Amino acid sequence: MSGNKSLYSEHYLTNRLTEYAEYKDDSAALVMGDRLRTIYADKRPTLASANEVQTEEDFIKPVNRIVYGSETVKISYLIGRLYTFSDPHP
């Protein structure tokens, strides 16, 4: 696999991954892809001029809810020191 870039072993990608039911049945991935394309098409006109907060609220959070089922862990840093941490999955 030329696109691997050493993130996963070739053995895992070519042998093990194909054993998973999720890999064999791509219907959920197709539905997810359709939902992601719909969000992008809807938000694309405003993304170029959106600031960071608008982008996160209007695009990133909805995508994360589709992909992960919830919003991801949010960590903020102030001069290299951790000062806030919120975990949606305590």
Notes on the protein architecture:
- By secondary structure, the protein is an alpha+beta fold.
- The chain has a domain at 26-86.
- The chain is built from four helices and two strands.
- The protein has helices at 10-16, 21-24, 27-47, 52-68, and strands spanning 74-78, 81-86.
- β1 and β2 form a beta hairpin.
- The mean pLDDT is 75.
Helix content: 40-55%
Protein structure class = alpha+beta
Count of DSSP E strands? 2
Point out poorly predicted stretches: none
- Give the overall form: elongated
Strand content: 5-15%
- Biggest sheet descriptor: 2 strands, antiparallel
Mean pLDDT: 75
Task: Compute the number of helices.
Answer: 4
Q: Report the C-alpha radius of gyration, rounded.
A: 18 Å
Question: Spatial order of the strands in the main sheet?
Answer: 1-2
Instruction: Output the helix-strand order.
Output: HHHHEE
